[in-house]
Amino acid sequence: MTIIGRRVTAKTLKLILAIIDLLRRSKHPISTKEILLLLLKKNIYVDYSKLYQCLRMLSRKNILIQTSYGKMSFWELNKGLERREILQMLGVEEYS
């Protein structure tokens, strides 16, 4: 499957869905570093550059909102988007 002209592996899709689920549960924007640490606690191993690449892609698709404070980026889910809508925006089908 492809998202924005890039081939997306099952591992990358799992990462994207984990990011969305983390941000959906959050009551406030989360820093990139905090997202990385939360993913690692869930045994989702990803390096910082891959995480940032996924976050930027989700931001370009208007799924996430990025706010910068100095050199730090904070991320939040674009309110009002349901999981089904997000998957449609990404061009993927629901996986169980």
Commentary on this structure:
The protein is α+β, with helices and mostly antiparallel strands. It has one domain (2-90): Arc Repressor Mutant, subunit A (Orthogonal Bundle). Helices cover 49% and strands 19% of the residues. The chain has four helices and five strands; from the N terminus they run ββαβααββα. It has helices at residues 10-25, 32-41, 48-60, 83-90, and strands spanning 2-3, 6-7, 30-31, 64-69, 72-77. α1 (10-25) crosses α3 (48-60). It is globular and about 35 Å long. 18% of the residues are buried.
List the helices and strands and how they pair.
Elements lengths: L1 E2 L2 E2 L2 H16 L4 E2 H10 L6 H13 L3 E6 L2 E6 L5 H8 L6
Antiparallel strand pairs: 1-2, 3-5, 4-5
Radius of gyration over C-alpha positions, nearest whole angstrom? 13 Å
Report the sheet with the most strands, covering strand number, pairing sense and barrel closure: 3 strands, antiparallel
What structural category do the secondary elements indicate? alpha+beta
CATH architecture: Orthogonal Bundle
How many individual domains?
1
Tell me the number of helical segments per DSSP (H or I, 4 or more residues long). 4
Low-confidence runs (pLDDT<50, min 5 residues)? Answer: none
Q: Superfamily at the CATH H level?
A: Winged helix-like DNA-binding domain superfamily/Winged helix DNA-binding domain
Strand share of the residues?
15-25%
The level-1 CATH class = Mainly Alpha
- In which order are the strands of the major sheet placed? 3-5-4
Average pLDDT: 86
What is the N-to-C order of secondary-structure elements (H for helix, E for strand)? Answer: EEHEHHEEH
Q: What's the overall geometry?
A: globular
- Number of strand segments: 5
Q: The CATH topology, please?
A: Arc Repressor Mutant, subunit A
Question: What is the first-to-last residue Cα distance?
Answer: 16 Å
